[in-house]
Design a protein that fits this description.
heterotrimer; A alpha/beta (483); B alpha/beta (404); C alpha/beta (250); B: 404 residues; alpha/beta; 2 domains; ten-stranded mixed β-sheet; 6 helices; disordered N terminus; C: 250 residues; Rossmann fold; six-stranded mixed β-sheet; four-stranded antiparallel β-sheet; globular
Chain lengths: 483, 404, 250
Amino acid sequence: MVATAETISAVEEATGKYKYGFVTEIETEKAPKGLNEDVIRFISAKKEEPEWMLEWRLKAYRYWLKMPSPDWAKLNIPPIDYNDIYYYAAPKNKPKLESLDEVDPELLRTYEKLGIPLNEQKMLSGVAVDAVFDSVSVATTFRDELAKSGVIFCPISEAIREYPELIKKYMGSVVPVSDNYFSALNSAVFTDGSFVFIPKGVRCPMELSTYFRINEQNTGQFERTLIIAEDQSYVSYLEGCTAPQRDENQLHAAVVELVAMHDAEIKYSTVQNWYPGDEEGRGGIYNFVTKRGACRGDRSKISWTQVETGSAITWKYPSCVLRGKDSVGEFYSVAVTNGAQQADTGTKMIHIGEGSRSTIISKGISAGKSQNTYRGLVEVHKGAENARNFTQCDSLLVGDKCGAHTVPYIISRNPSGKVEHEATTSRISEDQLFYCLQRGLSEEDSVSLLVNGFCKEVMKELPMEFAVEAQKLIGISLEGSVG
Amino acid sequence: MSPNSAAPLIENDTPRDAAAKRFAAVGWPGKSVEAFRFTPLDSLADRQILHGTASGNRSTKIIDNAVHIQISGGVYDAASSDDMPAGISLTTLQDDTEAQAALFADLPETHPVANLSFAQMSAGIQLSVSADAADDTTLVLDYADGSETSSAFPVIIVDMAPQTRLRLIENHHSAHGLSAPLVHIRMADKSELHHVRLQDEASHSDFVALSQIQAGANTKLNSFTVSKGAKLARCETHLHMLGEHADMSLSHIYLGADEQLLDITTRLNHAVPNCQSNQLIRGVLDDKARGVFQGMVRVAPDAQKTDGQQMSRALLLSRDAEADAKPELEIYADDVVCSHGATVGELDETHLFYLMSRGIPEAEARALLIEAFLIDGLDQIEDPTLSEFLTDAVRSWATDATAS
Amino acid sequence: MALLEIKDLRASIGDTEILHGINLTINSGEVHAIMGPNGSGKSTLSYVLSGRDGYEVTGGDILLDGESVLEMEADERARAGLFLAFQYPVELPGVSGMSFLRAAVNARLRDAGEEEVDQLAFVKMVRAEAKALGVSDEMLKRAVNVGFSGGEKKRYEILQMALLKPIMAVLDETDSGLDVDALKIVSEGVNALRGPERGMLVITHYQRLLSHIVPDFVHILAGGKIVKSGDKSLALEVEENGYADIANVA
């Protein structure tokens, strides 16, 4: 049997397996606790923002005040006291860094411990990193080298000062301020995040990556990322995230906007490993994220790949608005839940352009007492001649105390559009498990191997540098789920 | 019927009073209610509630040797109905407080049709099938007559004793402004039901049906609905598998044209282990018609060895047609095999070309392919007599659709 | 010395006893065949030996290299040197063949306190073995058993046996689903692995496999018991007269 009484007890016993749960002792500067217009003014002032940005934030805040918190997901979200959160926390340091040498060594050590050395010599070759620590970007590597090819990769707070025209034009153009409760909140209080601009005809010479770390207690992280790929450009971007192990819940509400013009391609990969809380559901990150890409140009392509293993609650639907003719949207997802985790994640593919195509491959793995939901929308608009969608959603259950749910919405308004959706739910077969055991693999290794096999179609979409790490992560996330 | 007219529940309320209050409290659901997002019913609030009267006519026979039950103008017309054969009893619900209480206990609390139809109950009959009934008994519930200003709320209970077998035909061809039939079927252990339903109401009608089926252990259900009439039609079925080894087949075809809105909604509840369910849904939409399929399969904790399969396919024949689908799996047990599939598209051009290359004119080739798409679905019907009844209904629609 | 000792082994599935007291000793270097009609308990025996869940040992003992394996999990028995070539090898979608094989080999090495093999050395090792068994590079690249023909699956089983170097190999109906040519390749692979340090138990319904893998001893299993033992001529006797006569003798 896959799940035995031993399994259940093993699940209950398994604690402390989250290896990124440490806290960095560093002096920080915080905004006063709570959310009001003064706090927003404080954040804006800290970031030395122009007046128009402050106005934008305040407008978002006023929207947010009037909005109800969404309750349609299959999630049990305890009430959040938005006035019991710090919206700004930054390591005390010089506000502007001229080079990596000026970064607090404690921070460099933190990232080293997380497996993300910021020292360019030690780094994975070909990957540029923006490191966001609580509310600020602490370092961005390889900027000069990227600048040579015209690529801008910098903290978004810097972009607001340096490239106001680009920000004014694109920020909020994909995810409007009033899009949803959490995007409005983010628009009001976002503190940092990454800005990427790939000029026309440029193939970004290296992988770009942002590494998010929540360190402070009672602090929310509200980052904002904006990636613009002009005509015929290409960029591959990866984000990773971790947080200390704490008994309280912490809020992470990010907004990511992607814009792809004619023949441009953006590949956006996420390895999400926020602290998931303990087996009883104490602590862990609430991960409420709005991610959307606009395929504005003809033949443009946006591809989302996500490996979601962390967070106590995940609420996240990276989407594509396929406006360009023959544009392409992709969503590849692995979501692993264990213990008391809850995930409600999926995508929206909005077909507006003629000949637009989308592919959705979602693999959900539930273990322990967790609940894992795929929720997706495929919509074919009237003008989307010959639009195509293929969706495959597979769920795997490990143990009999968890749940796996599939909630797809299909709306088709064009007869030449073709939408295909398939979903299956199953568990690891006893035959498969026994076969591995008979070859001498332990039960845990066998399950990890079989689950990774189950996720293969998604894992192969990850950039090579991160695929191995992600594979291990899936194995670790399932630790304690089998006897 | 405005939501504000709700009076508080009091202790002496009869179940029907309570249902009326429940309905009044929320009224017809709009699109903000998730289960009605594709098919909001708030427009029905404009319909006057005015019970009809029986016309005294008996509908044309559709099947030989069947026992005919006439629901005319929304009321049960005993004079135009057959006598019940041995082993089957027909009793009216109007004065049967016990039967009313039992039904009320099984109604979903917030469902508009459940509450309104039970409260209004223009007709109320209970059909009890005992072990003495013949195995090949066929009952026809014939819903006829009515006018644009009348509304019908027939409430039908079918009670099948253990090890009984029944064929049940529901033939809806009335002309009410609003029809809201509530059907409640109890299948005791080892009973077997072959059920077909044709919804072919008048083109001005709104039709919102709720059928509930409670299946005991080792039961077998083979049910098929064709929905093609009415202006707005929602056929909603809640199937509860309450005993192990229930073998359930629940399939639908919807055929929409003009500005019709046809909704098929199913909720399957695998409450116990070892049951299997199979659903096939086929839809064809022409003109400005809209088709909706919502299908939820829920597998309760411990309902191990569940086998739940569902496949929905929609065919769009026109630029202005729309198909919406929301198949849904909610699974709390691990040793299960569940899957669903949903497709929306138009006729396969390569198939069309193949037929035309053999000299078949395009219109005829289209008709052939549409018919094939639908008739293939009708294979789910095991009983040949019942199959014939629906096949005729589907064929005539396909011919009309391609002729226009 | 005795590599495998089965002593008065009784085993049940649920409440039904399938094996009613089996005794069998296999010494190093020996190849034993177990023949029997359908339903005689052949596959049950292979699963009980390898420790599959759902098969309960209700009496007797199984000693592998002198140690009882009854308290060992399936993976521990495998690492102790017991290999089962499956009658129906299961497909593992998405699980790369090379990573699977390497994980299995390294698990064994780790247990033995030996150094694990690195990827490069391992690829070389696999290629050499694979070539002899006619397992193509293309097959090695695919997911485990996925899309393999019946013959390919069986060759892949023997390849695993060659890599894992068990002390005791149990071959469950290895001939099923094989045509004459495939049978020959598989048998040659098995014969190449025969050796003084290894024991083998060949389970089969038909004699034809035994003309390729010639056993030292043949046992007839019927109704959950060994009803007759002999040398290879016993197999021919079965071929000629069927199981009915022999089973009745018991």
